[in-house]
Amino acid sequence: MIHTLESAARDLFLSGAARTVAGRIIGIVGFFILTRIAIRIGVRTVHRLLNSPAVKMDERRRGTLTSLLDNVVRYTLYFIYFLIFLELCNFHVQTLLAGAGLAGLVVGLGAQSLIKDVLTGLFILFEDQYGVGDYVKINNFTGTVDSIGLRVTRIRAWTGEIEIIPNGKIQQVTNYSRNNSLAVVDVGVRSDADLQQAMAVMESVMRDVASESEDVVGPVQVLGVQAITQTEVTLRATAECRPMNQFGVERLCRLRIKEAFDRAGIPLASSQREI
Amino acid sequence: MIHTLESAARDLFLSGAARTVAGRIIGIVGFFILTRIAIRIGVRTVHRLLNSPAVKMDERRRGTLTSLLDNVVRYTLYFIYFLIFLELCNFHVQTLLAGAGLAGLVVGLGAQSLIKDVLTGLFILFEDQYGVGDYVKINNFTGTVDSIGLRVTRIRAWTGEIEIIPNGKIQQVTNYSRNNSLAVVDVGVRSDADLQQAMAVMESVMRDVASESEDVVGPVQVLGVQAITQTEVTLRATAECRPMNQFGVERLCRLRIKEAFDRAGIPLASSQREI
Amino acid sequence: MIHTLESAARDLFLSGAARTVAGRIIGIVGFFILTRIAIRIGVRTVHRLLNSPAVKMDERRRGTLTSLLDNVVRYTLYFIYFLIFLELCNFHVQTLLAGAGLAGLVVGLGAQSLIKDVLTGLFILFEDQYGVGDYVKINNFTGTVDSIGLRVTRIRAWTGEIEIIPNGKIQQVTNYSRNNSLAVVDVGVRSDADLQQAMAVMESVMRDVASESEDVVGPVQVLGVQAITQTEVTLRATAECRPMNQFGVERLCRLRIKEAFDRAGIPLASSQREI
Amino acid sequence: MIHTLESAARDLFLSGAARTVAGRIIGIVGFFILTRIAIRIGVRTVHRLLNSPAVKMDERRRGTLTSLLDNVVRYTLYFIYFLIFLELCNFHVQTLLAGAGLAGLVVGLGAQSLIKDVLTGLFILFEDQYGVGDYVKINNFTGTVDSIGLRVTRIRAWTGEIEIIPNGKIQQVTNYSRNNSLAVVDVGVRSDADLQQAMAVMESVMRDVASESEDVVGPVQVLGVQAITQTEVTLRATAECRPMNQFGVERLCRLRIKEAFDRAGIPLASSQREI
Amino acid sequence: MIHTLESAARDLFLSGAARTVAGRIIGIVGFFILTRIAIRIGVRTVHRLLNSPAVKMDERRRGTLTSLLDNVVRYTLYFIYFLIFLELCNFHVQTLLAGAGLAGLVVGLGAQSLIKDVLTGLFILFEDQYGVGDYVKINNFTGTVDSIGLRVTRIRAWTGEIEIIPNGKIQQVTNYSRNNSLAVVDVGVRSDADLQQAMAVMESVMRDVASESEDVVGPVQVLGVQAITQTEVTLRATAECRPMNQFGVERLCRLRIKEAFDRAGIPLASSQREI
Amino acid sequence: MIHTLESAARDLFLSGAARTVAGRIIGIVGFFILTRIAIRIGVRTVHRLLNSPAVKMDERRRGTLTSLLDNVVRYTLYFIYFLIFLELCNFHVQTLLAGAGLAGLVVGLGAQSLIKDVLTGLFILFEDQYGVGDYVKINNFTGTVDSIGLRVTRIRAWTGEIEIIPNGKIQQVTNYSRNNSLAVVDVGVRSDADLQQAMAVMESVMRDVASESEDVVGPVQVLGVQAITQTEVTLRATAECRPMNQFGVERLCRLRIKEAFDRAGIPLASSQREI
Amino acid sequence: MIHTLESAARDLFLSGAARTVAGRIIGIVGFFILTRIAIRIGVRTVHRLLNSPAVKMDERRRGTLTSLLDNVVRYTLYFIYFLIFLELCNFHVQTLLAGAGLAGLVVGLGAQSLIKDVLTGLFILFEDQYGVGDYVKINNFTGTVDSIGLRVTRIRAWTGEIEIIPNGKIQQVTNYSRNNSLAVVDVGVRSDADLQQAMAVMESVMRDVASESEDVVGPVQVLGVQAITQTEVTLRATAECRPMNQFGVERLCRLRIKEAFDRAGIPLASSQREI
């Protein structure tokens, strides 16, 4: 299909009209418009195909594939346009960059990081490292995957900004959406608090939260004395939550524990000391 | 067009006059002046074309294209001038750098980062990573995109300075102008504050701000107890705002919450403690 | 076997049908489906073989091998599919990348990090650096090894997220599952505490914990005064535990020591000072 | 011109005298003196030409061009001297470095960073990233550009020291002299201060400063509550100033606001607390 | 010997049976089993040889050599197995990677870090940088050397975990087991302490510890006032100890000095201040 | 001259005596002694020439040239010695490193950083980045330039140690000896101080110091309120001093301002607060 | 000599016995023993020669040369042994690594850092950057140079551990043993102290120390007010000491100044404040 399209384009634009400068410019502009139309049609076809009920896929994979194929269609057509464009302009550049070795060197240098981006992108998809909609951390940036392209991945932070990372620059991927997440609640009590009582209160609060909140799907646990620092004794409790719902659970637990401690008279490290 | 221009220049300057040293110098200077004029004409044509009402484009894309085409016209003419200049001077350099391999190596080394800059620049445009006027963060520098060139991107910080970054040095792009931004307001209250009351006051203040300010376009939320540190209990609220208007909203919320807390007698962590 | 499979595929798809564009597309799609089926069959065979009672292996090695062979089967079939795909499409790409040297350069550049990943992966397995289920620290990320592939290692943190690290990016491996772990308990007492008494109390608490907890498998030791800082005197005790159970033991020790110190009137550094 | 000069030099020094060692040394020394004289004449000519009233240029561009052409003249003559010197000495070095490949490699390695420096320098000039006299920040060093050479840029810090940076080592350029600068004044007040009153006082002070100081060229603004920390409430005001005059304006504003707050009884965060 | 083994294997597996796919698979599996047996025999022989009383070596060198030869035997047999395996499979790979240059490139890229690891490993052994059992610090990781292989070094931390470092990644080695170690005891006293008395008490305590503990093998010294900070005056004493026993000596000294200072009424910086 | 010397050496040592091993060893040793004598004579000649009253140079340039020519003489003779040495030994090395390509690669790799060092050194001298005796900062090390060699620069810190930096490792040079230095005196006063009075006192003190000290050569200035922090209000004054004398001036100013503030009753931030 | 030794070895071991595998093994082991004996003899000869009274050298240079020649003898013999070893084993490796280009690549890659180490080591010696016994700082590690080898430098820290640094990894060298060291004593006094009196007391103490201690060889100086921070006024004094004796002098000065200040009633910043 690609071949046919390109041949037609070449026959059309390079045969007669291309002999004059004006003809070439018209050709370039014309083909530019044709390319844009082709891109739109291609992209729409991809969307329609993938979102038709005939294709059985879960939502996450459908999003990933749509964003990828969009990309493939776009870049393929850009590439063809670029080749036609080069041929239409190609009356002087070649004589400048005559040496094939030099041209090869130049292309190689330029293409190097591009190839690395695309290859890493393919591996991300084949190995299913993350899909559109996953909550991930890539190179110190955390957010929801917006789209996975052949060359770049876009992530949307919870505060709204879009981060664009070339795939080849990705060093480590942390995917938060694969397993249940663990809510970890650390509470610092004063050194004169009764630890056994505090842990008992914590456990009962955690159980209440677990029975009440739908986000908690696993067991809750009061792990015990996490640290004894110079100013406080830190107690830790955990609860298994649905992926990425641990932040809300942690906030709820903190509120409830604070209130329960106040009721039970267990002094928080931040509570007013009597001097 | 480029071809014609260059041929004419070459015929004019290299045929007769170029045989004497003086003639060459005149040629170089003359062609330098011609180049400057050509650049002005080219740049004006680009501006007129893109800003004519016939071209239907949104403002952002128009700015980006204008700044880019400016660049393309400039560099193409610089390049032609450089070639003519080399040919006019070219009576001794060649014998020095006789070995083609060495010359290729030298050119390749020099051109390497240049090509990388241009390629990255093209991808920024094709992938629409950011446009002129977007508020972005590139390599730890934050500001409004001033212009996108083939080789460098210029960013204007809110305090006025211009940052110039070669495109090939861009590692990660954060674009704040694509989605609504989230205003995040953290307020630390004293450990003896009534958290339920504090959260209720916060929520009512946030609602007031949302109904009052046009910058708030989405729902407001009081998330809850973000952290319990040794000196305070941190409460967090959020509000969805129009892109890049969150800073003003956050400032307004802080002012209102402070005043509402003072009225309601909820002690801030920074409030005077009675000892 | 691979040879046979590929020959058959090639005979089938490239002979007749491949002469038309439509035929090629059908061939690509058809072979894509065949590849998926082949992968499923291959993966299942691997699982059945390795998990059959006839194969005598400890659980850890069985998990590692299963995850590895899965990978080998998958990538081999992907590779064959890719070759067939290239041959089916291969009517224009070749003329573009005509120069073999350039193609070699491009392939070499792309394949470089891939080969490094696979080689490092093989060494991890041959040298038994870690297996599936080990608790490891790789490049500042700590967790349980989820799977070891030819190209990437997946680690599951204790809070649930999955970290994906290309094998070639692994710099140093710390394996916590090979030896017994040492629980280290540092407790800071006030400067006016009786150190001999405090160390005696600590020792008796540590012995109680050791006799009580099954996780403590080696001797307990009170090492002595670890540091004298401006605000406290730090005492240190250790206990040898079963691998990765030291955290629970440390928590238990901290709780018991705190309670024993309170009973014995030994002031902790965090205890309320009388002014 | 260069050619003529070099040919004459070569004829003179290499023909007869160069046959003896003494003659060569005399030749080297003599040509060394000639080179120095030529440099002086060249540099003076450049200065006279560029500073003649006939050349219409603004001061900044004139400084930049003078410093650059100085450089070009110097290095060209150094280079010619070096070639003559090599030919005069060249009776043994060549036999040592016989292999042309090795020599090419060595030259390439040595010339690599030199070429990168010069190319980056040219782009700095072509793209007008900064000129002589601009206040810039390059690689964590801030100051006024003293000179832009082909190879290095010299910057003078406000405390007087000269920083010398090879152009090829320049990563990011921040130019403070292109736009108006924004004076940003942050003042921390105590938690018990009346914020509305404080902001009103600030605004009136800022207006006074703006009407009084010639350095303020744009509107002043009291942005509001920038942050609520554990010890203070930070208020922020801004004023648009002429480039690089914001530091003086900020100092003036701080003094005036401090005095106005003292008069109005608004407590600064640093004010003595009554206990 | 290696040659004989491999020839036999090749004759056996490649002659007749290898003509069929099934025969090849049997050959691969069979040779895999043979390789495992050969490794076991080789490793046992190495152990028996090196640990026989006939070989006169100190314990440290014996451990190092055993761990090394183990490695050499293993990798040599793995390598032979890999070659046989390639020959048995080698009916399609070759046609894919036809270009010898490309294959060389790929092998070179892959082998690069492997060769660096082995070379560095050899230098570690030849230069006796560390042996099995030494307490070392390599790249920010401290512990006892567990084994030195051709490719990796394994270190066991005092808390039990195993660190695996490729030899080629080793930057700097710090060996604590070569010389006596110096116990350094810093004690901070209050500003109103009598320094001469404090130093005298310290000296007498250090002498007692030295005469009492077998770990102290060199002279003890009270160096004097190490620092005067805003909160304390730091005194320093040292004692030469047997390698790696300084930690215990330091703890003992701290305990004794604390007790002696309490007896003598010299106030520690951490002691309760009377206000 | 070099040629003659080397030819004589070669004739002498390689003709007859070199045929036996003993003769070669004698030759190597003998030539070693000759080289040392030649170096001494060469170095002395350089010193005498450059320090003779006939040569008109300022002291700084004389020091730089002496240290450089020393170096050139030394390395040239080392190099000749090395070549002779190689020829005398050269009966086996060549057969080992038979392949010229490999030898070239090895030499190139080894010579790479050496060439970079020498080239950077030449540019430091040509561009007069610093001379012997200048006070500079190179790569985070500050001190007086002790000597500039072809390969390394030596710097003497004010506390006496010598820092040796290969020229090729120099990233940025800060030269403090080119311009007058600016003494910057920051003094923090308490929030309740009268700022106008404090600034007036500061100004009068600065004027006194300027009229009294010969090191102050430019105007003194009280810039104003540099910062308002939570604990103090910082005032800044400056004075232009002779290069590198600003430290003494700053110390003097601090002493005088402290005394003047005490006399005038202006409270320093560090002054005792009455509670 | 080397040639003779190797020829003999080759004649002996490769002629007859080497035809059988057993003979080869015997040859390898036998030559291994011979090599060890040769190393011992060579090393002893070097020591005897360099330490004989006939050789006139200062102690430092003698130590450096002994440690270097030891190294040269050792590595030369290792290298010869390695070559013989290769020839004895060399019946299969060659056929594997048939391509000379690949072998060259592999050797070059492996040898690269080795050559860099040796070249840097030679420059350290030629340029006399440091010698055995010097107190130096190399790459953040400080200590006394223990030995300088062709490939690595060993440093002994003052606490006893040995640091081993490959010469090629050395970035910057700081040598403390070349010049006198400067003892720098900073003392912080309270804001209400009489600075003139404090400086006078300091000066008299410094003079006493200088007249009393043999380590002080240059003038003492009280520089003045180094800094005025929020909590103290820092005074600085210096004394020129013999190399590396400044630490003892500093400690003595601190002790004496503390005592003198206590006698004179000058309050240290760390002294108890009366509230």
UniProtKB/TrEMBL annotation, chains A, B, C, D, E, F, G:
Query: What Gene3D superfamilies does UniProt report for this protein, alphabetically?
Result: 1.10.287.1260, 2.30.30.60, 3.30.70.100
Domain Mechanosensitive ion channel transmembrane helices 2/3, residue spans:
71-112
Keyword Zinc-finger present in the record's keywords: the answer is no
Instruction: Report the residue ranges that make up the Mechanosensitive ion channel MscS domain in this protein.
Output: 114-178
* Bilayer topology annotation: Multi-pass membrane protein
Query: A cellular component term (GO) from this record?
Result: plasma membrane
Keywords (A to Z) from UniProt = Cell membrane, Membrane, Transmembrane, Transmembrane helix
Coarse class of the protein's main subcellular location:
membrane
Q: Name one GO molecular function term.
A: mechanosensitive monoatomic ion channel activity
Query: Mechanosensitive ion channel MscS C-terminal domain location, by residue?
Result: 184-267
Is Aminoacyl-tRNA synthetase given among the entry's keywords?
Answer: no
At the top level, the lineage of the source is Bacteria
Listed transmembrane segments: 21-43, 64-84, 96-115
Name its cellular compartments: Cell membrane
Function recorded in the entry = May play a role in resistance to osmotic downshock.
UniProt lists the family membership as follows: Belongs to the MscS (TC 1.A.23) family.
Its protein name is Small conductance mechanosensitive channel
What is the organism of origin for this protein? Alicyclobacillus macrosporangiidus
